[in-house]
UniProtKB/TrEMBL annotation, chain A:
One of the GO biological process terms: cilium assembly
Residue span, Tectonic-1-3 domain: 157-317, 326-515
Domain of life, per lineage: Eukaryota
Protein name, entry field: TECT1 protein
Keywords: Cilium biogenesis/degradation, Glycoprotein, Signal
Family: Belongs to the tectonic family.
Protein encoded by which gene: Tctn1
Quaternary structure (record): Part of the tectonic-like complex (also named B9 complex).
Zinc found in the keyword field: no
Transmembrane segments: none
Residue ranges of domain Tectonic-1-3 N-terminal in the record: 15-121
TrEMBL record, chain B:
Residue ranges of the TM segments: 12-34, 50-71, 83-108, 114-138
Organism: Smutsornis africanus
Keywords: Cell projection, Membrane, Transmembrane, Transmembrane helix
One GO CC term on file: ciliary transition zone
Cellular compartment(s): Cell projection, Cilium; Membrane
Coiled coil: none
Record-given protein name: TMM80 protein
PANTHER family the UniProt entry points to: GEO07735P1-RELATED-RELATED, TRANSMEMBRANE PROTEIN 80
Major subcellular location class: other
A Gene Ontology BP annotation from the UniProt entry: non-motile cilium assembly
Topology with respect to the bilayer: Multi-pass membrane protein
Gene transcribed to yield this protein: Tmem80
C-alpha cells in the first residue's frame, strides 16, 4: 500500500544553513530577543538601542577558503539611540595555501548521518551499535575469542554483588520496581543483604494457578555453588510459620513437607506471605548451603492482593553472624556495641559480647507507671547518636535500709550486666582488643559540701553516660569513631525520714553523644622539589 | 637558416621548462601530502590525483627528450627532424590537459596550485607556439 511505502522512504534531516546572513548562534530564545545578540532576527531597533556590545561580531564560513562571505555586526554607540550596523562583506584570505576551489562535496562541511530505515538498519546497527565505532569490527571479535580460553582455566567464584546463579536463571528476590507490584526479575546479589516488600495480585479462584504464591516457586531451582558450574545446592525448607487470617502466627514442627496452595472452606490456604533466605558461603566465594524460612497465610474471597516480604542474608561458614553497627564508622541509629573482658585474664585477648545486638549497652527504660521498683528491669538499647534521657520515681519509706536500697538503685541504673568495653568502630572484631574503649566510671556527689564523717548513706540517683566520638578518616567520607565513654554516677544523701512518712526521689539516667572531632586539616601534596646534586667526583682533578 | 634562428629561444625555453617542471612536480607532490594531512582526503580521491601527477611526470621525460633531440641535431635529413618536434607537440597536448586537470578538477585546488599550474600552462603555451613556428619553417 502506498502509505507504508511513503513511510519507508527515509526522511532526511533539516538542510544545513549556509547563508552567513541568516546564521545566528546567539539566537537561543525562540520568538524573543536575546540580549546582546546583534544577529537575532527577533530584535527590533528599540531592542538594539539597549545593547552594550555584540556578543557575535562576525559570522563567517570556513576561513580556509580564499574568499568567502562574512556578516559583520557591530553597534554604533555614537548615534543616539545606538543602532546596529550589519555589513555583508567578502573576506579574502591572504594565505597562499587557501582553498581556491574544491571538487569534493563533503570536504568543508560535516556529513549528514544516514537516516535509519528498515533496509539499512541492520547495517547501521552493525557499524554503530557498539560502544566504539571501529573501521574493522571483525578484529574486535577475534580478540575476545582469544581471551576466552584463558578464562576457562580460571576457577569461578562469587564476588560481592554478582547475581546468584540457579540452574535456569538467577535466584529471584521479588521486589517492587516502579509501583508497589512485585516484579520477579530482581536477582539476589551475593553478600548483599536485602529485605523487600511488594504487593502481589491474588484471587481465591486462581488459588492453585498463581505460581508466585506457592512454596515450590521459591525452592524448586537449585543454586549453583559457583557461577558456570554444574554443582548444585538445593534450597532446604528451614521453618514454616503459618499466619491465620487474624494475624496470629504459629510455628509448625515437621517443616519438611511442602505445602502447596489449596482451597479449604472458601479460603485459599498455604499462600506464601514471606520468604527469608539464609545462604551459607565459604571464604572462597562458594555457596554451600541455602535455606528458606516461609510464612504461609490464607486469603478469603474478598482479597484482591497480598503483601509479600522477602529477605536474604548471608553467613560465612563456621562463623556466627555478628551484627555490625556500621562499617567501619558507627551509623546513627544502630546500637552501640559493648562487651566484657573475659574472666581471669589480666590483659584481654578477646572481648566477649552479647550477639543480641540490642542487649549490649542499655539504659533504664521509662515505663508508664514511673515506679522504679515496679519497672521489672525494662531496658532500652543505647543507639549511636541518639541522646536519651529516661527515669523513674522512687518511693522511699523510713523502713528502707540504706545498703539494699543503694544496691537496688545501682542495678536499676546500670542493669544486670553493665559492659566494660565499648567498640570504637561499628565493625570492631572481638579479637582486636585495641579497638575497644574501656568505660570509665566516675562518681560524684550532689552535695557540694562533703562531710567525710557522713553517717548518712549515699544513694545513687542518676547515671549519665557520656560518649565522646570523633570523625575519623577522609574528609569526603568521615567515619564515626567512639573515643571515650564515661559513666558518671551521682549520689545524694538519703535523709532519714520520720517513720510512716514517704518520699519520692526522681531517678534519671541519660546518654549524651558529644562530637569531639577536631576541625579537618586538608593535606596537600608537597610541591615537587628539584633535587639537583652534582656527581661525587664532578671536580675530579681538583677535589 | 630560419631553423637555426628559432632554435635559440626554443632551447632556452626547453631548459627553463625542464627545471621548472622538476620544481612543479616536487611542489605539487608536497602539497598533496599537506592536503592529505590537513583536510579530509579519502583514499578514492587521493589515488587519482597522485596517479595523474606521476603520469604527467612520465610524459614530461619523452616530451623534453624529443624536443632536445631536435635541437642537438641528429643524423638524418631535415625531413626526419620534424617528426620528434611533432611528437613532442602531441605529448604537450596531453601535458596541457593534465595541467588543466590540476588547475580545475583536482580535489582541493589551493591558491598555490593555481599559481603553479598557470605558470606551467603559460610555459606550455609559449613552447607550443614556438614549436608550431619551427615546424612551419620546414613545411
Amino acid at each position: 500500500p502506498p502509505e507504508t511505502r511513503a513511510a519507508a522512504r527515509p526522511r532526511s534531516g533539516p538542510a544545513p544553513v549556509t547563508d552567513v546572513a541568516k546564521l545566528c548562534i546567539c539566537d537561543l530564545l525562540v520568538a524573543q530577543c536575546d540580549v546582546n545578540c546583534c544577529c537575532d532576527p527577533d530584535c527590533s531597533a528599540a531592542d538594539f538601542s539597549l545593547f552594550t556590545t555584540c556578543s557575535v561580531p562576525v559570522v563567517t564560513g570556513d576561513n580556509r577558503l580564499c574568499s568567502q562571505k562574512a556578516a559583520m555586526y557591530s553597534l554604533d554607540v555614537e548615534a543616539n539611540p545606538p543602532e546596529r550596523i550589519f555589513k555583508l562583506i567578502d573576506q579574502v584570505n591572504p594565505n597562499v595555501f587557501c582553498i581556491h576551489a574544491t571538487n569534493y562535496k563533503q570536504a568543508l562541511s560535516f556529513s549528514s548521518p544516514q537516516m535509519p530505515t528498515s533496509e539499512n538498519f541492520d547495517q547501521l546497527l552493525k557499524e554503530f551499535g557498539s560502544a566504539a565505532f571501529s573501521a574493522e569490527p571483525d578484529s574486535w571479535d577475534m580478540n575476545t575469542d582469544a581471551q576466552n580460553p584463558s578464562d576457562a582455566n580460571e576457577t569461578y567464584r562469587y564476588e560481592y554483588g554478582v547475581p546468584i546463579h540457579t540452574v535456569d536463571a538467577f535466584l529471584r528476590l521479588p521486589s517492587p520496581v516502579v509501583s508497589s507490584w512485585c516484579s520477579d526479575a530482581n536477582p539476589a546479589g551475593f553478600l548483599v543483604n536485602q529485605a523487600t516488600k511488594c504487593t502481589r495480585p491474588v484471587s481465591v479462584r486462581k488459588c492453585g494457578n498463581i505460581q508466585a504464591v506457592s512454596m515450590l516457586f521459591y525452592i524448586n531451582s537449585g543454586i549453583l555453588a559457583v557461577p558456570k558450574s554444574s554443582q548444585m545446592v538445593n534450597i532446604t525448607v528451614q521453618s514454616v510459620v503459618v499466619q491465620s487470617l487474624n494475624g496470629m502466627r504459629t510455628l509448625l514442627n515437621g517443616s519438611d513437607v511442602l505445602r502447596l496452595p489449596m482451597i479449604l472452606d472458601e479460603l485459599c490456604i498455604n499462600i506464601v506471605l514471606g520468604v527469608s533466605y539464609h545462604i551459607t558461603y565459604t571464604d572462597m566465594g562458594e555457596i554451600i548451603e541455602a535455606a528458606a524460612a516461609f510464612v504461609l497465610g490464607a486469603i478469603n474471597k474478598e482479597a484482591l492482593s497480598i503483601q509479600q516480604s522477602f529477605e536474604i542474608s548471608f553467613t560465612q561458614v563456621n562463623t556466627k553472624p555478628v551484627p555490625l553497627s556500621g562499617n567501619p564508622g558507627y551509623v546513627v541509629g544502630l546500637p552501640v556495641r559493648a562487651g566484657f573482658r573475659p574472666q581471669g585474664y589480666p590483659f584481654p585477648v578477646e572481648i566477649l559480647f552479647n550477639t543480641n545486638k540490642y542487649g549490649q549497652l542499655t539504659i533504664l527504660q521509662s515505663t508508664s507507671s514511673q515506679d522504679c521498683l515496679a519497672a521489672q528491669g525494662a531496658r532500652t538499647p543505647v543507639l549511636f547518636g541518639y541522646n536519651m534521657v529516661s527515669g523513674c520515681k522512687l518511693r522511699t519509706t523510713a523502713a528502707m535500709k540504706c545498703q539494699p536500697l543503694t544496691q537496688t538503685l545501682l542495678d536499676l541504673l546500670k542493669g544486670q550486666t553493665f559492659p566494660e568495653y565499648v567498640a570504637s568502630f561499628g565493625n570492631s572484631r572481638a579479637q582486636d582488643v585495641l579497638d575497644w574503649v574501656p568505660i570509665t566510671h566516675l562518681q560524684t556527689s550532689e552535695q557540694r559540701i562533703y562531710n567525710t564523717f557522713q553517717s548518712s548513706c549515699q544513694i545513687p540517683i542518676s547515671l549519665e553516660i557520656e560518649v565522646k566520638w570523633t570523625k575519623y578518616g577522609s574528609l569526603v567520607n568521615p567515619q564515626a569513631r567512639i573515643v571515650n565513654v564515661t559513666a558518671t554516677i551521682t549520689t545524694t544523701t538519703l535523709k532519714q525520714l520520720p517513720s510512716g512518712r514517704e518520699r519520692t526521689i526522681p531517678i534519671t539516667s541519660s546518654v549524651v553523644f558529644t562530637d569531639i572531632s577536631s576541625p579537618a586539616e586538608p593535606g596537600y601534596k608537597a610541591w615537587p622539589t628539584i633535587n639537583v646534586k652534582l656527581p661525587f667526583d664532578f671536580f675530579f682533578p681538583f677535589v | 637558416n630560419s631553423h637555426q634562428l628559432s632554435s635559440v629561444p626554443l632551447q632556452i625555453l626547453f631548459y627553463v621548462n625542464g627545471i621548472y617542471y622538476i620544481f612543479y612536480f616536487l611542489a605539487t607532490l608536497a602539497m598533496i601530502v599537506y592536503k592529505s594531512e590537513v583536510f579530509s582526503y579519502p583514499d578514492d580521491f587521493l589515488a587519482p590525483d597522485l596517479a595523474l601527477l606521476f603520469i604527467m611526470a612520465i610524459l614530461e621525460v619523452p616530451r623534453l627528450h624529443l624536443a632536445f633531440c631536435f635541437l642537438r641535431g641528429s643524423k638524418g635529413n631535415l625531413s626526419e627532424e620534424e617528426a620528434p618536434l611533432g611528437l613532442s607537440l602531441v605529448i604537450t597536448v596531453g601535458s596541457v590537459i593534465l595541467s588543466v586537470y590540476f588547475l580545475v578538477w583536482q580535489t582541493y585546488v589551493l591558491k598555490a596550485d593555481v599559481i603553479l599550474n598557470a605558470l606551467l600552462l603559460f610555459t606550455y603555451g609559449l613552447e607550443s607556439v614556438l614549436k608550431v613556428v619551427a615546424i612551419a619553417a620546414f613545411v
